[in-house]
Amino acid sequence: MTRAVTESSREKTAHRLLRSSANKFYDPEIDIDWDAPLVEGKRYLPEERSSLYGTQLWDRLTPEQRIELGKHEIASIATNGIWFEVLLMQMLLKEVYDADPTTEFAQYALTEIADECRHSTMFARFSERVGCPHYGPVPWRKRLGKLLNVLAYGPAMYGSILVAEEILDRLQREQMNDPDIQPLVRMVNRIHVLEEARHVTFAREEVKRRMSTLRGPERAYQQWLLAVVSNEITHSLINPNVYKAVGIRPRDGQRAAEANPYWQETIRYTGERIMGFLDEVGLVGAPGMPWWRRSFLLGAR
Ligand SMILES: [Fe+2]
Ligand SMILES: [Fe+2]
User: Fold this and answer.
1) CB 161 within 8 A of CB 81
2) Which residues contact 218 (CB under 8 A, 6 or more apart)?
3) Which terminus of the chain has fewer Cβ atoms in its 10 Å neighbourhood, N or C?
4) What residues form DSSP beta bridges with 43?
5) Separation of 250 CA from ligand 1 center, angstroms?
6) Which ligand lies nearest the alpha carbon of 200?
7) Rounded to the nearest whole angstrom, what is the distance from the C-alpha of residue 15 to the centroid of ligand 2?
8) What CA–CA distance (Å, rounded) separates 288 from 269?
9) Considering every ligand atom, which ligand is closest to the CA of 82?
């Protein structure tokens, strides 16, 4: 049973996070050497994290094409990261709108929005620096995302924030110290991982606090909404247009990735930590099961 997080503990957490934000934060404009040359022949993404790894399409790619595909995939993940962050900022601003701005809770929410502004700029600059087009979500999904700000509130809102943040975090943690990965990718990941740790603490506590106030049908709605959003998150990561960079038709690449057990396992791996938490607090339930299964976050069942 999850312990209810009280108002005073919310302020205490916000206070601690505000202090930590003041002590340790990055300015990617200054802290990243954007002019440093990219390292010839070095990967942008571990091969086994590529969406096509292990498929017949992968077997036909040359080593250079595999690196090229990884570069476009990571640019797709980074620009979808911008999409997630922009949606997240909208939701947090909604919180600030309703909150007492003199509380540390509201002030931390504003601080987190400021962090996300820097991150989104960093991801945009990264994508531009490595020479990739703007991927982001496919157009229909981008339109659908506009609904999130209207539909999401309560624990599913913070739960959606957590799914996006923790999926990226798991991938980035794995790569930030990997000597086989481009130094620019490692630095971007390191900055993001460090600052996201605070966001994850904040959102997890809010999920717990809000779950304790839910009753009856509202619980089912929250479980349903979170599953639907999480399914969109996992399927948005790789924009099918990335496959064009290595001469694969987007539709063929997407189909191969969706059926690829290695890619499904990567998604399960990225969601492992957050799914355990969401299950424990009661946000993974029957109303959302069809979407959870489609999302690959539950793994092979
Ligand atoms: Fe971020
Ligand atoms: Fe964040």
Assistant:
1) no
2) 154
3) C
4) 181
5) 28
6) 2
7) 17
8) 20
9) 1
Longest dimension (CA), the chain: 59
Residue among 72, 86, 80 nearest 138 (CA): 80
Distance of alpha carbon 220 from alpha carbon 133, whole angstroms: 40
How far apart are the C-alpha atoms of 167 and 193, rounded to whole Å?
11
Say whether 181 sits in a helix, a strand or coil. Answer: strand
Structure tokens at 199: 């966001």
Name the band, by pLDDT with cuts 50, 70 and 90, for residue 71. Answer: very high
Q: Which amino acid is at 173?
A: R
Centre of ligand 2 to C-alpha 252, Å, is: 33
What's the pLDDT band for 300 if we cut at 50, 70, 90? low
What amino acid is encoded at 291 in this protein? Answer: W
Give me the amino acid identity at 294. R
Report pLDDT digits (tens) over 111-169: 999 999 999 999 999 999 999 999 999 999 999 999 998 898 899 999 999 999 999 99
Q: What is the distance in A from the centroid of ligand 1 to the CA of 247? A: 32
